[in-house]
Specification:
The protein has 16 helices and 6 strands. The protein is an alpha/beta fold and 373 residues long. It has a 6-stranded mixed beta sheet, sandwiched between helices. Helix 13 links the parallel strand 5 and strand 6.
């Protein structure tokens, strides 16, 4: 049951019920959980196995019933019954005794529990030393397994370290160590469930999985990849377009900013300089600068396909080109200072550079062959 429903049945305030559930005395200091012996168990379905369920398991085990049969009779998952037998059977003779199993489950349930890191000073010191060296929790966990291969008490998963940083139980890790994490956050940020997320743009996105096969294998020219390279303090940008078959580069001049309207207008102006058969589609990431992709498609009749989140390899040619462009437009510089003529000069240099992937032809030569054909 929920905390609110349990408190209503017992007849106590919700706040008091949470203190009892967490094992805190009225003074606020951690103590033993208060017994609720006056409350009769509900007859409805429960998240946890009850004593009657454990008696049924013991009886059916004596009758040599299978775990799957017992689970079906109880309306539970077979893994639930299997885990119950494995965890709560007698530690020496292996027999499953229902009342002893209930006692073990009750002893295991009270919260809060002391953390593994807080109970082991050597483990705590090792984790803290790793965080001081800017190691990630996963790197620390792997180092523990390599350093102490035969000591399971020194092994933790990375979620245990995150819990020790964020929950901050007594004897756990120092709070200031959270700054050593790459995120720098001292607490977790809640995320929405997938079904609760708002649409990225007003116009629905068409994902890269729906892009024609001819674009995927680069057999037909005219499929472009696009992105922005960002300048100092996110205050300026240059748009980049790369044709997938020829690696031909075109740069978008964005002197007035990188809003969705500015990017759309620059794209419309640029693609109209190309023959129609050389502009079949455009692939972009899910950046906010493409919020006007619907009006771009209406103006040019060019479909826009969007990559999956955090999947830059789906625009590999464009990502590689952005790296080459950083020779001309270093990070941390003001990109609005570059004129349209300078962008054309840089694009011409890249298009005149021999490329191994093109058999040492230049993108300009490969594009010229296509236009001549």
């Amino acid at each position: 049951m929920s905390s609110r429903e349990a408190c209503r049945i017992v007849g106590i305030n919700l706040r008091t019920g949470k203190r009892w559930r967490n094992g805190r005395a009225p003074s606020g200091r951690t103590g033993r959980a208060l017994p609720l012996t006056a409350v009769a168990p509900s007859s409805g379905p429960s998240r946890y196995l009850r004593e009657a369920d454990r008696i049924h398991i013991a009886d059916r085990l004596r009758e040599k019933a299978t775990v799957r049969t017992i689970a079906a009779e109880l309306g539970r998952s077979p893994s639930t019954v299997s885990r119950e037998i494995r965890r709560n059977r007698h530690p020496f003779n292996g027999q499953y005794r229902p009342h002893a199993a209930q006692a073990r489950a009750d002893a295991r349930r009270p919260r809060p529990k002391p953390g593994k890191i807080g109970q082991n000073p050597a483990l705590r010191d090792f984790v803290q030393d790793g965080l001081d060296l800017k190691w990630s929790p996963e790197q620390i966990c792997e180092s523990l397994r390599r350093t102490f291969p035969d000591r399971p008490e020194m092994h933790v998963v990375h979620e245990t370290i995150y819990q020790a940083l964020y929950v901050q139980g007594r004897g756990e890790l120092r709070r200031e160590l959270a700054k050593a994490l790459r995120s720098g956050r001292a607490r977790r940020t809640p995320r929405r469930q997938a079904q609760q997320r708002q649409p990225r743009f007003a116009t629905p996105m068409v994902m890269i999985s729906d892009r024609p096969a001819e674009a995927e294998d680069r057999a037909v020219p005219g499929h472009w990849e696009g992105d922005l390279i960002i300048g100092k303090d996110n205050g300026s940008a240059i748009g980049t377009l790369v044709e997938r078959a020829t690696r031909y580069v075109m740069l978008l001049h964005l002197p007035d900013g990188r809003s969705a309207e500015h990017v759309r207008d620059a794209l419309v102006t640029t693609v109209k300089t190309l023959p129609r058969h050389l502009v079949r589609s455009l692939t972009w990431d899910q950046g906010s600068e493409m919020a006007a992709h619907g009006s771009f498609t209406l103006a040019t009749d060019i479909p826009v396909y969007f990559c999956d989140p955090a999947s830059p390899w789906q625009r590999g040619s464009n990502e590689n080109t952005n790296g080459l462009l950083r020779q001309y437009f270093p990070k941390g510089t003001d990109l609005s200072a570059h004129s349209r003529d300078h962008l054309d000069t840089v694009a011409a240099q890249l298009n005149g550079r021999p490329r191994k992937t093109l058999g040492w032809e230049t993108p300009a030569e490969r594009l010229h062959k296509l236009l001549a054909a």
